[in-house]
């Protein structure tokens, strides 16, 4: 198909393309991206360029059009783009599994490759439920989590997202009924730790697992909490025979200043989900890791297999790029780059505290958040950021940024100015 004029492309988009979290037909005209390189998105028909402050929903940690990742994709494409994973295997998937095991918290030994982050959470829940069923304890089938969380848009993940005020509130009464405790405070409070212990003890006979986002709650509110709560959860789960699941889809691969947020607490979960930055933003892929305890328990059951098998599971093209992305990350001073961005965001976002309507400003690793005391005017805030030459995607009462790790100091400062401008206008 020849290139379409932007006006025609936008009209076709409005009529036929259903964008995420939007109506059909669309009511807000999207920007048309023609190409991307480094940290910049090139808009169509000479409309300028934008520094990407979002890493394409937190995935493009190395930026765009990276020569190392491009070459990995080209080389693998010359071998095979896909082959079914049932009864077959291949080097990219095996190498990826070994890389993930080697870099993840000690004890996570087995890797189930999935299509997306949400599917990796589905797999994690299925693992936990089947583990207890295999051990003859099928009554353990509920999940405990804290409010303010977000774990994806498919069925089981929606059930452990915040049921009040979250984007999945529509499905209350239809989703599985899980156990919720209050959202974790930013700092450690013994009274809250006791609430966690008490809830796990009280519901232990029916709990298959506790599932949380460690240290940073992502799309549920961009809230940070003390890593000490992860140790409380680990100890309580061990004491009451409950599995512990960490959703590291947003926090994995260095975003918080540790390769995985679990490392801030020196805790190993029984199951861990990763995604987003796994392939450096090149294509969709995720993984669910588990301990030998979980895998062996499932294998000893009446049905000794995990009955889950996505068509594109272990896709060699995605696995090759994921391997290249992980090796690229580990082969450089990723922590130094994340700390550099953290310092730049702290300096650049500090003035936001003086803006009327700003409730809080918080920074952790390569994450910067400005929280308003009102719902953000998404169009006004987005337009303000675009005028500063930056792409942001505000939501609810939040204007935030998760830039690629390759973002230079000048562009970090530019992103911070755009966040402040969006806060003033939004």
UniProtKB/TrEMBL annotation:
Its cofactor is pyridoxal 5'-phosphate. Pyridoxal 5'-phosphate binds at residues 117-118, 247, 310-311. Keywords: Aminotransferase, Biotin biosynthesis, Cytoplasm, Pyridoxal phosphate, S-adenosyl-L-methionine, Transferase. It is an enzyme of class 2 (transferase). Pathway: Cofactor biosynthesis; biotin biosynthesis; 7,8-diaminononanoate from 8-amino-7-oxononanoate (SAM route): step 1/1. The keyword Transmembrane does not apply. The modification N6-(pyridoxal phosphate)lysine is found at residue 276. Substrate binds at residues 57, 150, 276, 309, 393. The keyword Cytoplasm applies. Belongs to the class-III pyridoxal-phosphate-dependent aminotransferase family. BioA subfamily. Homodimer. This is Adenosylmethionine-8-amino-7-oxononanoate aminotransferase.
